[in-house]
């Protein structure tokens, strides 16, 4: 491998910061600033800066492991792969294909996520595949599709934030989760804009806000409704925007008007004057944004909650306009791309719906299989984990550690232990891998090339910088070997670029259209925003539009197409027609790089870096002319407040909310192996108000037991006035006694199937001597 600096991206969160990697003579890898990447301009948080430590960690897996007489012991690759193929084959023969489960992760590259979905459906023939991204942003994705016809985390680049007039940040602690992104908000305030942070805790992010609202956990929906009520009452509705670009306003308005500010104050704990001030700050500037993260999304009403915030944007004309809009701050490194290409229970590549006949035909053709052979939608992530050992007897798991990260984790661990067979691909022996029958050691970010899609919808090229250690193989090689052993000898390439070329064809004409993106372009342009249709794939894409429109009983009339491919049919049909060059005026074609981006839902195009010829420039900004719905209008969704699934009572009188700390990432499987990060964040804690601490008789650092209906966790007290007196907070990165997810409630959102991580009832007990 080369000894010069390789420009690439961080392995962790969805900011996907750029960095340079240089192999050092002693075998380690040095990280250096990569200022050319516009998202972080060289800045990194501690996790990114220390990421190479996991590459050479002394606990790195370097040999396959198989369970023998109860113990995991080293084995050859052939033995380990044979064991997995046997385990899956036996389950399939004895219980049918749906008894084989597959669980993926939002850290997998697009190529791996795509191949994993294909492997599950083509090789195993199972419908039972989902991934840990379901626990991340699925409520925002569902709400975005309902309202706009399309889910792309941010419909605009981060660089738009400083130019906006006001940003409401709902349930996001960027100072801990994505520190380099704070500069966009600092610049916003330097430019005269205002930042409003909504969080039950006075986080480091909230400390930097012009206004901090601290609602009771689980009441963000009521809060948004109260704000919308005031928008109407104060005459701040953008009537023209509502009339011209939306539908459903009257029902949404009526629902909001039932939520009087005083009623909302009682539910949320946010005072009426604070509500009025929020409305003033949001409505007075010409532009404003609402950005949500896990706080409002990880609730059993997460989809409605995000929908209420979108309603606020639509009613005030703050969507589909420059420097305004709603966006979701996706969390995991490839949380965006990971949900677009087929590892989700209900989706096919290109963000197509699995139950859409046209989508099935298109993808089946790319895969060379009969569309009728593809299984239908399967269970969502928690439901899949809950079915382990009963309906699902064997599991293949990649890039995930549900023993730590799933809700009601002790139950999930018990379900995993009850499996007939478990195979895990990972880089270290995670808590979940430790329960496996076979563990395969796989390559990491710097040891392989692949693409990710960051929270802006910017597709990026992560480049290989070093040679993997002896004995390690890539996830793509694993799937190829297993496919061979399970009787599917073709269709599973191991070269990432070859996989991406197939992904381009599979996504062509879909909502998340990558067909115009190539590795070469990604390298030359420093990333490309989807949708980005391609001319050379016009035939395939036009087939999609044609068949979809035929199925809908219409012609190729874009506005009339009743496509339900993730609700973005108009886009799909329009893109396909653009690609085919049919029936489009010149100004509305993909070949007009200077004009409005065609084939994209009302977006604009960037000035491309270099001459792209007639290539599509990509779509940094969506919805500027039209939303991705059949009629181009956004949908209001009439929603009302409802309680969390488990309200406090006499037995469990306190609310628990969970979250992250800056030095750890997700389940901590990687970051807990980095000395510097462990020194900064050595273990879990219980953050609580002095009033609660006094009631317990607990001092700073004293062990506190937090007990919910699902279990008990113990961690030292961290006492602060920066949290509501009715709420405690625990970070969820650790296993064992302090595992926060032992306590969390798997009550699911009816639409997104998101568990209610963010609010459940607990009681506190002092732990004596
Ligand atoms: Fe950037 Fe996120 Fe990596 Fe930190 S963890 S360096 S914020 S991509």
TrEMBL record:
Gene3D superfamilies: 2.40.40.20, 3.40.50.740, ADC-like domains, Dimethylsulfoxide Reductase, domain 2. InterPro entries: Asp_de-COase-like_dom_sf (IPR009010), MoPterin_dinucl-bd_dom (IPR006657), Mopterin_OxRdtase (IPR006656), Mopterin_OxRdtase_4Fe-4S_dom (IPR006963), Prok_molybdopt-oxidoreductase (IPR050123). It comes from the Bacteria. Residues 583-599, 606-618 have a biased composition (Low complexity). Keywords: 4Fe-4S, Iron, Iron-sulfur, Metal-binding. GO terms for cellular component: membrane. SUPFAM superfamilies: ADC-like, Formate dehydrogenase/DMSO reductase, domains 1-3. One of its GO terms (molecular function) is metal ion binding. One of its GO terms (biological process) is respiratory electron transport chain. Residues 3-59 form the 4Fe-4S Mo/W bis-MGD-type domain. Residues 583-621 are annotated as: Disordered. This is Nitrite reductase.
